[in-house]
Specification:
Blueprint (H helix, E strand, L loop, with lengths): L18 H12 L3 H8 L13 H11 L5 H15 L24 H10 L5 H12 L3 H4 L3 H10 L6 H30 L6 H10 L1
Helix pairs in contact: 1-4, 1-9, 2-4, 4-9, 5-6, 5-9, 6-9
């Protein structure tokens, strides 16, 4: 027996919930169907033009909720839908957290998630920092193909991803890359600060004077 495919409709609109949060909730709803989840997963790392199986689920949603004609916006939606659908089994039980009491800029972005990964030993400090600095120099076209492997590693290590924040950051990346990259780096160093100890280097430098 095959799963029935949910209709491509979004949760009721609410003025207190961001569009990105409503989209994430919608994709989680879709992923309750094995068939829909498999279709969405086929878009991992691909440009929209090669995401043939995703259109039936995402085109109606974008038509009603966001700018479907802006390439960066559309690709961000397709990318995040695919990433959510490709979550490892251990991460599928997590549901979107839409705590209105938390400021948008206090929610964890990708930099914060990488900082948590370093703090928990999921990623090495050098690897996480290198990934962030590399992305800070790249366009979204260069970032998208590498996201699936990075996100999979974070999720497998028990690191939470705020999908709505990632969605908006990717949608705006080419227009505000420096601002978003700075926010990622600041969040990373704030989160991973307790794992780094600059004192030995400072002492060595002092001894050389």
């Amino acid at each position: 027996m095959t799963d029935s495919v949910p209709a491509a409709s979004a949760p009721p609109a609410s003025s207190s919930v961001r569009v990105s949060d409503r989209f994430v909730a919608y994709v989680h709803q879709l992923c309750a169907s094995t068939q829909a989840r498999a279709a969405l997963r086929r878009g991992l790392g691909l440009p929209v033009e090669r995401c043939t199986y995703l259109h039936r689920y995402l085109v109606p949603w974008l038509r009603d909720h966001d700018d479907q004609h802006h390439g960066d916006v559309r690709r961000a939606y397709y990318a995040v839908a695919s990433l959510i659908a490709a979550r490892p089994r251990s991460a599928r039980d997590t549901t979107p957290d839409q705590d209105a009491s938390v400021s948008w800029y206090e929610r964890p972005n990708l930099g914060a998630s990488l900082g948590q990964a370093v703090a928990k030993g999921v990623l090495k400090e050098n690897s996480a920092e290198s990934a962030l600095h590399l992305m800070a120099r790249q366009s979204s076209d260069a970032i998208h193909p590498g996201l699936p492997a990075l996100i999979r590693q974070l999720l497998a290590g028990g690191i939470t991803i705020d999908w709505a924040v990632l969605l908006e950051d990717l949608a705006w990346w080419n227009r505000s890359r420096d601002r978003i990259a700075t926010r990622w780096l600041e969040s990373y160093f704030r989160t991973a600060a307790n794992t780094t100890d600059p004192a030995p280097n400072d002492s060595a430098e002092e001894n050389d004077r």
